Amino acid sequence: xxxxxxxxxxxxxxxxxxxxxxxxxxxxxxxxxxxxxxxxxxxxxxxxxxxxxxxxxxxxxxxxxxxxxxxxxxxxxxxxxxxxxxxxxxxxxxxxxxxxxxxxxxxxxxxxxxxxxxxxxxxxxxxxxxxxxxxxxxxxxxxxxxxxxxxxxxxxxxxxxxxxxxxxxxxxxxxxxxxxxxxxxxxxxxxxxxxxxxxxxxxxxxxxxxxxxxxxxxxxxxxxxxxxxxxxxxxxxxxxxxxxxxxxxxxxxxxxxxxxxxxxxxxxxxxxxxxxxxxxxxxxxxxxxxxxxxxxxxxxxxxxxxxxxxxxxxxxxxxxxxxxxxxxxxxxxxxxxxxxxxxxxxxxxxxxxxxxxxxxxxxxxxxxxxxxxxxxxxxxxxxxxxxxxxxxxxxxxxxxxxxxxxxxxxxxxxxxxxxxxxxxxxxxxxxxxxxxxxxxxxxxxxxxxxxxxxxxxxxxxxxxxxxxxxxxxxxxxxxxxxxxxxxxxxxxxxxxx
Length: 497
Description:
8 helices; eight-stranded mixed β-sheet; CATH 2.40.50.100
C-alpha cells in the first residue's frame, strides 16, 4: 500500500512536469510566431531608400580662375663689382643687407691715390705732347718760309738765264756767261727741292705730334675713368643684398661687393601645362595680357599683389614640360624676390555652365540626378574646369539637360542608376548647399526609449559604409536626452524598418 501511494505521487509529479514543459513550449512558439509576424523576412523587406544631399543645377556665366605656383623675381638686379683694386676708405651707412638706396647715391669709395697719380702723369704727358705739337707747327711754318724763299731765288735765276740767252742770240753775250747762268738756275732748283723735302719733314712731324697728343688725351681720359671707378654709385633706386664688404677691406678688380635689386620692378615666373597655356591665348594665338594675382600665405598672414601677364618663355627647358609664363607685378605688396607664391590667373568667362561640388562628379564623367519617380538617373557631363573643391560642368550633347535638376552632392559606392533616394536639406527646394548639422539642430526633437536608442546606436556603430565624421556626429546626437526627429527617421529609413 505504501509503495502504491508513492508510485502514484511520482506519476502525478511527472505529469505536472510534462504539462509545464508543454506549456512553456507553447508560449515560446507563440512568441516566436508573433515576432516573425512583426518583423518581415528577407524576401518581404521594403526597398531601401537612401537620403541624399542635393543641389539644384543652375546654369550661369562664370569666369574661371587658373591656379599655378611660381617664384617672385626682380626684372632689374645689378651685381655691384669693384672696378679698381685698393682699400675701401669710405662706406655708406646704407651699404648693408636690405639697405635702401637711391639712384646716384655714393655707396663706397676705394683709395684713389694710385689712380690720381696715374691721372697726373697722363696730364703731364699730354702737356709734353701739346708742346711738341706747337714746336712742330713752328718748324713747319719756318720750312714753308724757306721753301718760298728758295722758289723766289729759283725764279730769279731762271729770269737771269733767259736774259743771258737773249743776249747770246743778239750776239752780245758769250756762251760762258749763259753756261754760268744755267748752273746758277740748276742750283736754285736743287735748293727748292731741298726746302720742299724739309717742309714735308716738318709736316710729318706735325702729324706725329698730333697723334702723340691724341694718344696722350686717350691716356688721360682712361686715367680719369679709372679714378672715377674708385667711386661706386647706385645706378637705380633699390635694395641691397649679398653685401660682402666692410670699410677698410682690400678689394680686387672684379670682386663682387653686393647686389642691387630694384624693389619696384618685380615679376612672377610660373609654369603651366600646355592645355592651360592654350587657354591663355587669344584668337590670333597671341598671349593675352590677362590679370593675375600673386598670393603668399604663411601662418595666417596673406600678402597679395596684382599684376599682368607680359610674356612667355621662348623655349621649353631641357627635361621640362609645359610653358613658363611671366607676369609683371604692379605693386610689391610686401613680396620679395625669391618668394614662392600662388598665382591666380583670370580666364575668359564661360557661359551656361553649372558649378557643382567636386564630389558630385563620378569617375565615369557623369553626375546623378534625382528623377520625378524618386530614383537616381546618371547624366553625362563635360568637365570644363576644376575650381578648388568645385567643378564647372556642362551637359554633353544628347544628354538630358541639367537646368533645374536636383544633383546629388556626394557620390558613394551605394548610389547608382535606379537607386531610390530621398532629397534632404534646403537644396531639395532652393538649390542651396545643404547643411545637415544645421538642419538637425532646427528639426523637431523627440524622446527615445532605451530599447529604441540602443537599437539605433548599434546600427550606427555597425554600419561600415558610413563616414567616420557622420558616425561620430550621429552617436553624439543619439547620446543626448532629446534627439532630432529627422535623425531618427533617417537612421530607421536606412535600417529598412
